[in-house]
Amino acid sequence: MFKPTESISSSVLADIPNVYLYDRSNWTEFKKILNECGGTWNFPHWMTTIVRGGEEWKLMCEAGHPVDQVFPIGKAGMEEKSTDLASKMIASLGLPKNLGENIRNDVQYCCLSTLEFEDSRRLPARQKMWAWITKSLKGTRPSVGPYHYLIDEVKAYDIAALFKRRVKVLEQITICSLDDELEKVLSVAFDPNKQNVFSYLGELRKAIKGLHDLNERLPLNGRIVLPDAFVKSKLIRAARQVPIYKPVIDMLLMSEVDEWANLTSDKLYQTLESVSANQQAVYQTQNTSSGQTAFDGVKANAAYQRPREKQSEKSEKEKGVCFNFQKGTCSKTDCRFRHEKPEQKRDQKSSVSSTNSTDAPAPKCGACGGAHFRKDCTSLKGKCGWCSSTYHTEAMCKLKKEGKPKASVAVVDGFPARAFCVRVCEPVVTVPSANVVQVLEPNKSVSDVQALSAISSSPPPPGL
Asked: Is the pTM here over 0.70, yes or no?
């Protein structure tokens, strides 16, 4: 019987994550975590504890078990005091007669494992486990889980009865459930990069055990029995993917049919385990001086290799730079990256690029002096008014800035002629019309055309 004064607060019990039971796929994990809840909360006999006077109690009485004699009312230390006077006094309180069973404190739980009444100090653990199961069946979705209705079919806090109802519903044998168990066995695959052959064999045997447990509830003609030869075949296929087990495979290939046919999976397991242990001893011996870590089980899937430092010694140029060292300090004693500061040229380049990107002056055209690049200038097709050359204006003329005289250009006998003339007198010096065909500056008057000196009557060479 539960005594509220002796109950312990459930806050001292550790919280365990829920496994939400939305379908059959999480049923195995649900049972595993539920068993862990009983061990963590010191409630190991939750599955074998029934309610005195409950459904399981009545079934056991009908089966002829003397549960009344084993669990009498006085054994729990509670004497029945339901006298007429007590009944009248309780009736005078005016309490409703349909009080819920959840608030009753006279419920007794009988542990069939110890043949004793459950101690009242187990009440916090029972309440916490009931809340855990209720939350797992309800789930976190907007609608409650598909198995939440089972809670209303049993008495509150009767965990054993609720678990029995879930087993009856979820472990009901159908042809689809049998196919699912067989598919679990066939889908167990071996990955040499993530596991060794021993952990793979453990997963395979676990799946086969689930199938054989289901066979016990089936008739003989409906069972699917996997022989030991199936386990041996799967183990050999996994060992063929591991280089260190090649001698074992070669030995089996050279043996007679009767010899390898009589080989059991346990004997093959022991042989592979011996090879792995020998490989582990060799690895530890050769790496004692190099300070390598302990032998990893996954490393048994590969042939022995030299340590990384001896197998491929990378040059300093191939190794990367330690960013932690560049930022300040590196706490690793055996850092595999280079400890060096960034190069000065790189810093200068970055500083120059950052300066150019922020404080770079606007471009200046060398042809016209505008705020654009020379390739984008529209004055390149014009003509300089000082030296009569193209590709720049008079304002940007270098000859003018150097103090050179202004040039006059004329066409002489079909060829352009340019000369730098100096005005020596005010009168205009005429040029023979026979030698000058066309003046390139028609807008200017004759007084502005300077005397051409040393103009030969022969045609000048091209390019002058």
From this structure: no
